[in-house]
Amino acid sequence: MIHLGKFVPFFILITISCSGSAPPPEIDPTSLRRPPAGPVEGFASPVADAHVWLGIPFAQPPVGELRWRAPRPHEPWVEPLQAIRHAMPCTQFDPLTAPNAKAQDAKLYGGEDCLSLDIYAPRWLPEAVPSDLLRLPVMVWIHGGGNHQGEASLYDGATLAASRDVIVVTLQYRLGAFGWFSHRALRGEGTSADDRSGNYGTLDQIRVLEWVRDNIAAFGGDPGRITIFGESAGGSNVLALLRSPRAAGLFQRAIAQSGIARGRTLAQAENLVDAPTPGLPFSSSEVLLRIFQREGAAAAREAALGVLAEMSDAEIAKTLRSQSARDLITAYEIKNIGGIYDAPALLRDGNVLAREAPLEAYEIGNYNQVPVIAGTNRDEVKLFMLFGSPHMRRVLSVPVAVKNERMYNVTANYPSLMWKALGVDEPVTAMRRVQGASVFAYRFDWDGEREPLWLDLGTWLGAGHAMEVPFVFGRLSLGPATRIVFDPSRREADEALSRAMTSYWTQFAYAGSPGRGREGELPFWEPWRPGGGSFLVLDVADEGGMHMSEETVTRADVIAAVAIDPRLETREERCEVYALLAKRSSGMTAGEYAAVEDGRCPALPDS
């Protein structure tokens, strides 16, 4: 599968690096709300006519014995909670120090006591909060970051809430080895099926949906019209929640932005790499061996296997739970920029997530059949190629020029097409057969970045990964990077596209179909067609605007196209593209790679 989040978007890195400890905002007395969870006070947004409540706890801190347990509901509080600061992010490698660092040398960011949500709503006096049939749709945002990075504070829902009359909820969930970790020793007596699932990050998201169901009416939200939406790993989590029996009935619509329908088996997450049913290199058992070697209990893997064989499940559980956050996370290896590491996520346990492979679950109808929008960006992988492509020249890790524009573009094209096939075309085709015409798709084509100094961002980044997010939130702001990315001379056209996208997204939240948007003036967004597909292209007017397209692809289509692409002039160039498909996506197996070009492509690298 495509490693969504092996890189953190450069503009997020810039935003984090330049953010300071601003003083807390003043409490707005008119923001007092009294949900069943307990009274909360927020503040007036400085950017929109909205009220904001930050850092509301939705579960008990998952620390001590609650590490690797399903989230427990937070006890109600009596005194008003001053919800004016974001909560601590969930434990992760610091994205600014992790690149090119060994895990043991990298700094950590955040902590385990992180389970919180933020709420953005139009600004009302307490007596004017909508009730009954006047309550507004709720849009619950799940952040991206490879399920190893990210935090709620990077997303401000005030403009979307105020301009489109919706309630926006953003959330934090356990990440990496804290969010997804499965080992038989943790499945002791007295544990529930949820506790034994290994899917703690997914259960955190489900707990938020339960909290929203029970409390959002106090903020003017309709608990019967919940839309989950997310980008990158957040989009993958949306697709996973569709496959979750535990999430049934907790949401009524779903939007997956640049997600991939993915999931690991319990064997992959738990077993040793040389077991009869092999596990992944960083399965829980392999991580245990690394811990034994680091702590001096064994000098090498073979000796560590002997130590493991002599331990009872109770002793193994005690060893795992005794690890500090730093000791646990540094048993993994950092992969590339942003502090992503290879902890298996989204485990097909049969309780929290369907046991079938994701596409099979959609094909047989074993999922929550609600209206769905799924989409990708035309040049998804160009963001990653800025930092990893051999066709990009870098100085001190900073991109300065494309060395071979032909190969830069073609090596971006195929993994991006595979992303579309695996994240949109194949799953929505399956859903269309099962649930009918309540499935919609899009492709984001905007590539209007500025070209400051030597930065040819239109070519380097294009319609890259995550570039649609500011358009969806209705505020074309990337913090300090705004002036680098957005061209002031194109501001009017860019804002028109953003208004159209927020109109479509919120009309979907209101009605379960994007139609012609909230005002009914946009091009009609047709549902996916059975057998042929149909998706909406999103772009500014002078670049083709918004229109329907039928350029659908499958996994097989993408692989077959490489062999006949005239842009690829040699076998070596074709092999380079095949290797990208085999290493960065599940669209091409190692066996398929070994067979192409009559078996004359180089062996795949280990990493």
CATH class of the largest domain: Alpha Beta
N- to C-terminal distance = 14 Å
Helix content: 25-40%
Record field, number of beta strands: 19
| CATH homologous superfamily label of the largest domain | Alpha/Beta hydrolase fold, catalytic domain
Q: What is the SS-derived class?
A: alpha/beta
Named CATH architecture of the largest domain: 3-Layer(aba) Sandwich
Largest sheet: 11 strands, mixed
The total tally of domains equals 3
Number of helices: 20
Note the quaternary state here: single chain
- What fold name goes in the CATH topology slot of the largest domain? Rossmann fold
% residues in beta strands = 5-15%
Looking at the structure, what is the overall shape? globular
Nearest-integer average pLDDT: 94
> Low-confidence parts lasting 5 or more residues at pLDDT below 50?
1-20
**Biggest β-sheet: strands ordered side by side in the sheet:** 2-3-7-9-8-10-11-14-17-18-19
What integer value in Å does the Rg equal?
24 Å
In short:
32% of the residues lie in helices and 14% in strands. The protein is an alpha/beta fold and 607 residues long.
Model description:
With 607 residues, this protein is an alpha/beta fold. The protein has three domains: 10-31 and 42-62 and 111-264 and 347-549, Alpha/Beta hydrolase fold, catalytic domain (Rossmann fold, 3-Layer(aba) Sandwich); 266-341, no CATH class; 555-599, no CATH class. Helices cover 32% and strands 14% of the residues. The protein has helices spanning 10-18, 158-164, 176-179, 200-215, 233-242, 266-270, 284-294, 301-310, 313-322, 325-329, 358-364, 382-388, 405-435, 457-460, 469-472, 482-485, 491-511, 555-563, 571-584, 590-595; strands at 40-41, 43-44, 50-57, 81-82, 92-93, 108-109, 116-122, 136-142, 167-171, 221-231, 253-257, 334-335, 340-341, 372-377, 392-395, 398-402, 439-444, 535-538, 547-549. The chain has an eleven-stranded mixed sheet with strand order 2-3-7-9-8-10-11-14-17-18-19, sandwiched between helices. Residues 1-20 have low confidence and may be disordered.
